[in-house]
Task: inverse folding
């Protein structure tokens, strides 16, 4: 009898053991209830073969364990099938009407307890399911005792106590074994749930890493990661672009100081080494490939107690910001010059006009041999008056009247004057006008002054056999004026200050000609660009946006 009882216990654990082996991957979660239902059904039929009644009249039926486990974790369809299997295997075991009555009572109570959430517990939680197991096992023990008592004809104390004790032991055994089975199944579900959570966390981590990687690689910042020994572990695309024509794999694993030597950038000291030696944060401005970078070097903290895990080097290209700052400074200087011109022009021009009038009168009354002196004085007075006019033209608040004009027509009007100036110098004018030219809204007088200033600058930069090319282009959104000479050219360090007031490369220049040109171009919402190479010549490119177009 004990062998059969032990065999029933082992068969009752068979679904749990097989489920623990089979249920090892999260993707099997959808088939878990089916597998558990089939295993519990097989265990029930095997237990039905070894069911027995002990000497106290207690029926040792362990089919309840797979029935409860399969119903609780298999869902309503599986529970229904298992209940049908249990009923079929139990019907041929009934011997009297009490068996039918008590079995019907079990079914009537078992179904609501199993499939209804009673107020004292929630059957969807782990503790709730274990409480369901306890309630059902208690019900089975009571019914088993009732079945045993119904078969006693002579109610003696020994018989009653034997049935009560046997039924109680059987009920507690069923409860304990079922709770153990439920505990192991819960452990299986917890294990898979942890795997799913770990998988989700890993996916989230990988997604965040990909996003961070994409952010770093597509960022306009120059980013370099180094480990705690100063070797490069990661660079983004911007860093590769400025380091030179090498691949990412050629940079990774190299010393940061070796890379600095290759790109020829000057630091007071290697910023990575300085951070690794204990400095907190370094901020420097460097020049790299003709660009200006605002750089920050800081340590990467692993854990508060573990110290520095590496160094992060970030460079922000501030070339455009620096250029805008220089332009603002230039505009401020132009504005200052304009304000000076507006305040002193009348105070100077009026006495100069009086002086010129008296000098001209003295010139007419002077002897022939002295008139050359008066002409020199008059020329110098006219030159001073021209400089004052340039001052006035630099005024930023000056209001100009614009009318529709054709750039080719303005050049044709100025061509005789430009030709005459070139003939005096022994130079040639190469005029290339676009066949079709859109109309611009400009001030004709200022545009002629712009063209004359650029043309004369070009002629002064050439020798007596130089060729000055004046060209117009009708582009899609802009109209361009190009003045190209083949003179001595301008060094790169002087190009940056070319349009500053009072900055000149000429011996007798005032430094106001190109500043005046810039002022005229900006009042017409245009742009002026200079391209030059020493010994090859200079090109002044002036662009005007067509009416109704957005160019910059």
Result:
């Amino acid at each position: 009898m004990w062998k059969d009882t032990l065999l029933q216990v082992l068969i009752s654990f068979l679904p749990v053991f097989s489920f623990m082996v089979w249920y090892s991957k999260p993707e099997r979660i959808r088939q878990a209830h089916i597998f558990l239902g089939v295993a519990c059904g097989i265990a029930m039929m095997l237990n039905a073969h070894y069911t027995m009644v002990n000497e106290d009249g207690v029926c040792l039926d362990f089919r309840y364990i797979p029935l409860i486990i399969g119903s609780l974790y298999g869902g309503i369809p599986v529970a229904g099938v298992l209940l049908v299997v249990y009923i079929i295997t139990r019907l041929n075991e009934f011997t009297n009407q009490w068996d039918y009555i008590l079995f019907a009572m079990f079914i009537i109570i078992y179904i609501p307890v199993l499939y209804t959430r009673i107020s004292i517990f929630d059957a969807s939680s782990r503790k709730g399911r274990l409480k369901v197991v306890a309630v059902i096992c208690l019900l089975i023990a009571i019914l088993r005792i009732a079945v045993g008592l119904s078969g006693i004809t002579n109610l003696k104390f020994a018989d009653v106590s034997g049935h009560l004790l046997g039924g109680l032991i059987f009920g507690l055994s069923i409860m304990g074994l079922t709770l153990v089975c439920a505990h192991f199944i819960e452990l299986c579900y917890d294990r898979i749930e942890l795997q799913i959570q770990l998988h989700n966390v890993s996916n989230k981590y990988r997604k965040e890493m990909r996003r961070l990687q994409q952010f770093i690689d597509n960022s306009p910042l120059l980013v370099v990661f180094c480990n705690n020994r100063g070797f490069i572990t990661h660079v983004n695309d911007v860093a590769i672009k400025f380091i030179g024509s090498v691949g990412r794999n050629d940079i990774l694993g190299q010393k940061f100081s070796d890379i600095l030597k290759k790109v020829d950038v000057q630091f007071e000291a290697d910023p990575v080494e300085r951070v690794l030696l204990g400095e907190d944060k370094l901020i420097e401005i460097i020049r790299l490939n003709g660009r200006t970078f605002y750089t920050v070097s800081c340590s990467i903290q692993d854990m508060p107690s573990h110290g520095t895990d590496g160094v992060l080097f970030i460079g922000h290209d501030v070339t455009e910001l620096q250029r805008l700052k220089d332009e603002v400074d230039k505009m401020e200087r132009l504005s200052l010059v304009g304000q000076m011109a507006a305040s002193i022009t009348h105070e100077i021009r009026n006495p100069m006009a009086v002086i010129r009038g008296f000098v001209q009168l003295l010139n007419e009354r002077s002897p022939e041999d002295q008139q050359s002196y008066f002409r020199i004085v008059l020329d110098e007075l006219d030159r001073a008056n021209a400089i004052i006019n340039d001052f006035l033209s630099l005024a930023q608040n000056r209001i100009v009247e614009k009318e529709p004009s054709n750039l080719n027509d303005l050049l044709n009007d100025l061509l005789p004057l430009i030709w005459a100036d070139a003939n005096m110098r022994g130079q040639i004018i190469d005029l290339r006008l676009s066949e079709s030219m859109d109309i611009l809204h400009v001030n004709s007088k200022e545009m002629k002054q712009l063209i004359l200033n650029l043309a004369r600058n070009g002629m002064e930069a050439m020798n007596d056999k130089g060729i000055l090319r004046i060209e117009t282009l009708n582009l899609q959104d802009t109209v361009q004026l190009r003045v190209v000479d083949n003179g001595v050219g301008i060094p790169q360090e002087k190009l940056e200050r070319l349009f500053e007031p009072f900055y000149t490369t000429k011996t007798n220049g005032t430094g106001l000609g190109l500043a005046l040109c810039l002022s005229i171009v900006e009042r017409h919402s245009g742009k002026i660009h200079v391209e030059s190479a020493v010994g090859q010549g200079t090109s002044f490119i002036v662009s005007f946006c067509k009416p109704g177009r957005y160019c910059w």
